[in-house]
Design a protein that fits this description.
alpha/beta, Rossmann fold, two-stranded parallel ribbon, 41% helix, 14% strand, globular
Length: 342
């Protein structure tokens, strides 16, 4: 491959769900891919190497490791994030989601990286009152994860303003084969223990894993993406009622019935967090989980469609079916019950 066309992508967060799938598809599209991992002998790193990804040891809080990993890189995809976990102190979120962004962009500037894609979150908009929201909708981060992600994104946008070739992606709820965040929803719908709190008419917006990866790669390659922020998600948003009914349909079980009030659940979550957090224990119930039932998430992806040619390929019904099949194939859900003969 000629030197002027060689593409070496550094992917942070490649041992996670989104970063791992991105690394795989970049290799499939002809990129050389390098991943920063904390443990080169771990199962996730081994899996990456099996897909042709180079792994280098390093932590995002280590500026020397970042500088070393950036050597000869042409494209940087910053997918890594400290996600919601009660065992993390608040300052850890800001170390990974804000401070590491500054260090990565600085190292990329020094290494003359051609394109940088920073993965933010639609959560910077919080509970949206504008339906559908867009890239200009006011910021309303609702927890330490969203606040730290917003501060990290602000660093990326400041770099944009001084001419650094950066694009920012704000994905909606990412799911698909390999995802575990929505496993509890599938399990409780499957076993009949799911309960809807509130009226269920709150808006919710999903993104199938390969569609978000498509958006990330377009942001790294399309000339119009430089200096822009894009929301990436399914063509349409839905409601929790419809989402849960569709999960029940693909699992071939009866949809949940009835609704319970949210307020007592939120009060219990506050108490649970207060008891568990001082001990570094992830509480079995916390406000983030309750917010699933209360915060509106509905966004327009028109900007990405018009400017960089983003086009979601997987419908919600197909994506949920593929996810359910993966859960069953990997033993995370029981095998499908045989259908009765008519």
């Amino acid at each position: 491959m000629a030197e002027d066309t060689k593409k070496l992508a550094l992917v942070t967060g490649a041992t996670g769900f989104t970063g791992g799938r991105l690394a795989e598809l970049l290799v499939a599209q002809g990129y050389c891919v390098r991943a920063m991992v904390r443990e080169t002998d771990g199962a996730a790193a081994h899996s990456l190497r099996g897909h042709g990804v180079e792994t280098v040891q390093g932590d995002l809080t280590d500026t020397i490791a970042i500088k070393d990993a950036m050597q000869s890189v042409t494209h940087l995809f910053n997918i890594a994030a400290a996600y919601r976990d009660a065992s993390h102190p608040d300052d850890y979120y800001f170390q990974v989601n804000r401070d590491a962004v500054r260090d990565l962009i600085g190292a990329a500037e020094n290494a003359r990286v051609r394109r940088i894609v920073h993965c933010s979150t639609c959560g910077v908009h919080g509970d949206v009152s504008e339906i559908p929201a867009n890239e200009q909708t006011a910021f309303r981060p609702g927890d330490v994860y969203q606040r730290s992600k917003l501060e990290g994104e602000e660093i990326a946008r400041e770099a944009m303003a001084r001419g650094v070739p950066i694009s920012v992606i704000r994905p909606t709820g990412i799911y698909g084969p390999g995802d575990l965040r929505f496993l509890k929803l599938f399990r409780t719908v499957e076993n009949g223990t799911f309960r809807m709190f509130g009226d269920g008419d709150i808006a919710y917006h999903m993104t199938y894993i390969d569609d978000i990866v498509q958006g990330l790669i377009l942001a790294a390659e399309h000339p119009a993406a430089i200096g822009e922020v894009f929301l990436i998600g399914d063509e349409n948003y839905t409601t929790l009622n419809r989402l849960v009914a569709e999960v029940a349909r693909v699992l071939d079980v009866a949809p949940p019935r009835g609704h319970l009030p949210v307020a007592p659940l939120m009060a219990a979550a506050v108490v649970c967090e207060a008891i568990c957090k001082p001990f570094g224990i992830d509480p079995p119930l916390h406000r983030r989980r309750v917010s699933f039932f209360t915060k509106a998430r509905a966004f327009s992806v028109d900007k990405a469609k018009l400017m960089i040619g983003f086009q979601p390929q997987t419908s919600l019904s197909d994506g949920l079916r593929l996810t359910a099949e993966w859960y069953r194939d990997t033993g995370k859900l029981p095998p499908a019950k045989p259908k009765r003969a008519a």
